[in-house]
Fold these 2 entries.
Entry 1:
Amino acid sequence: MGSYCGGWWWRTGLWAAVVLAAAAVVAGGNVTYDGRSLIIDGERKVLFSGSIHYPRSTPKMWESLIGKAKEGGIDVIETYVFWNLHEPKPGQYDFSGRNDLVKFIKEVQAQGLYACLRIGPFIESEWTYGGLPFWLHDVPDIVYRTDNEPFKWAAKMAVDLQTGVPWVMCKQPDAPDPVINSCNGMRCGETFAGPNSPSKPALWTENWTSFLQRYGEETYLRSAQDIAFHTLLFIIAKNGSFVNYYMYHGGTNFGRSGAAYMVTQYYDQAPLDEYGLIREPKWSHLKEMHAAVKSCSSTLLNGVQTNISLGQLQQAYVYEDSTAEGNNCAAFLVNNATTDATVEFRNAKFELQPRSISVLPDCEKVAFDTAKVNAAISNRIATTSKTLNGAEHQWEEYREAIPTFSDTTMQFNQIEEQTNITKDSTDYLWYTLSFQPNATSCTEPKLQVKFLSHLVYAFVNGEYAGSARGNSTGQRNAVLVEAPISLSESKNDVSILSVMVGLWDSGPFMEKRYAGLTEVEIQCKENTYNVTSYEWGYQISHSQNNVHILSIKNKIVP
């Protein structure tokens, strides 16, 4: 999900280039809008869009994913641009492999669909650091997501480009002209206050088909019926003309790309699951709805709407276009009650299921009912293709050495914030301390660690002392269980591994967020040593330092 987004619209067959993963040069074509819809080459459009993020799937999957979306009645493919992938270091760009945005957009073009490009630069999206490259953290005086000097070049560039296509701003009710404000959520047919100008159309930029999932949480299940009901409600109650399903295919958070505590699967309950397989009945039910709406889209967009009460919680939204030839009437019968209802509309009786909307493209026959599912539920079955045990597979164990203060080359006279040291090159950082009690005896010693990372492991003189887990946001001081430790009268090595399960993706003042240890004490019966301001040594975990661990058939694999 993204709290805010910026997007351009263009017919993909007309685009020329992508520059710095943030700008597009558009040639030809005409994409505008009025108070009813987006207008493409002079024609109002009802558009159904699907979010597919190119780096969350492999390039070999893109053709199939886009093809299945098109077959499912999708007109538009929406994607973010992931700045931290494309510019991992200032001036160093990467558009290869899964980062090949140009190839992805060309595939959308090849299949005759439109594209919505959400350029950010901040995207949230359950993506590490909200898509911002971590090197921004070290730009002097920078403040993210606000009126800040280091970002002003992007706003000026956007204006200077004169793209000639509409800009969209998600969840920004005061978006200035010509930017179109829009809605995110699951109930925009009920919650959206509407465009902030009568000259702007109603757009739903994130219709969540499921929800984000952190480790330890249950998968959120949203039914096909609920998605269809609220999609149609937005179209008729809010005069909506564009709906983007977030996600249509979620894919995979590869490597360290997921935000804090996010599971590897992303929106696996979308119409296309993590692997690109069709998830039923969601995919087919939405496909049927798309077809029903498009069969009367001209009347819907150009006709006059009339609302007719059919009961206490039932009503009809009727559209009639006196200028159209042939059929010029379409109706949507709504039952907001939690029980069945029988209504009469145009001298005919209709049975409406609870919380349902029926589509009558000709004001006579029901072509689609949100509560009636025709497709069977699909079951994804995993089978074992190969086992990795037995005599033919020899397993070896690798143990990373526990570093001590004398092993480190980076030392400071205080506890440092974790990401200031790692620069997001790894989720792991060793904090090391050489400690010797003073002349006062230290009996019944205990170690206490406070931290704002996700997990810590503590060792004293090479022996495991204890561990503790913080919460998913890492914003509370978690206290390590006060485990008894053994101290010698001379030097003692304290080594604490601080672990982050991904970085934050949102929230105010991200540039000031803290990770790592905050306070360390060695508690004795006679005295307490607060060693927070002692000299600490730091070592980035070997496993993230290009150490070759795995060897297969004498071939070294990093």
Entry 2:
Amino acid sequence: MRVKVQSKMAAVKDIVTLVLDKDHKTTVTVHLHGATVLAWKAQGKELLFVSDRAVYDNKKAIRGGIPLVFPNFGPWALGPQHGFARISRWKLEQKPEKDDSGAMTAVFTLTDNKDTRKMWDHKFKLTYTLHLTEKTFKTTLKVDNTGAETFTFTTLLHTYFRTDDITKATVSGLKGLEYEDKVRGDGKFTEDRELVTVAEEVDRTYASTPNSHIITGVIGGGKVHMEKTNLPDTVVWNPWVDKAKAMGDFGDDEYPSMLCVEAGHVATPLSLGAGQSFTGSQTLTLMDE
């Protein structure tokens, strides 16, 4: 395991990132603030986007990588947008370890505390497991209700992919599905394209999607296969020109270099009784060209 302070974060002395290093060409970098995955490199290719203007202040969510959304997706009356998981300090439960096959695994946890209970008065434990092989990166989130009362929540893995040119990127597996369009904001629509492309601001939540998507146009002309388990919805997002200019932690000219394809359980909230648990995961695989 290597633990290092990134140069751009040097002003905040107590912030560290951890690296799962399989063979130097295949690595994952994780920030303890939000347990945010900052980088996934497979065969020497960096596949995730992080804004050059991302803020590392232990307060704001990090703009890029794979932020964790819990217990609420979107605007939240009780607290910050997308909940508190992505802005909380997580505990390293199991340091990065290599098994006999060469795969790397690390585990992070977050439990309720006085700050979370001020917003959302429930007892819980989140366990986030990262598993890295040569071409595959699996992220698994387990939610345990450790209290005596039922709670409801939504959750999502807010994955930012790096692209060469957003207009050439595509997402498969969404044709014929109903989606909510937050840009238009005037109801629900049905996707009629075999491959979803982006040529304007996009913020769509597709409900009850297949467990598999292929994202093309990832940096270097690559393709990534996304396989989801217990995460039935898919969000596709790109801020485009105007919204990019309006975000302080996102460069004005960065929107062509990223595409969010986000696996989640957001269209319908989950209900978890006392002592019950929920587990959802996504597996990202760099496909052969």
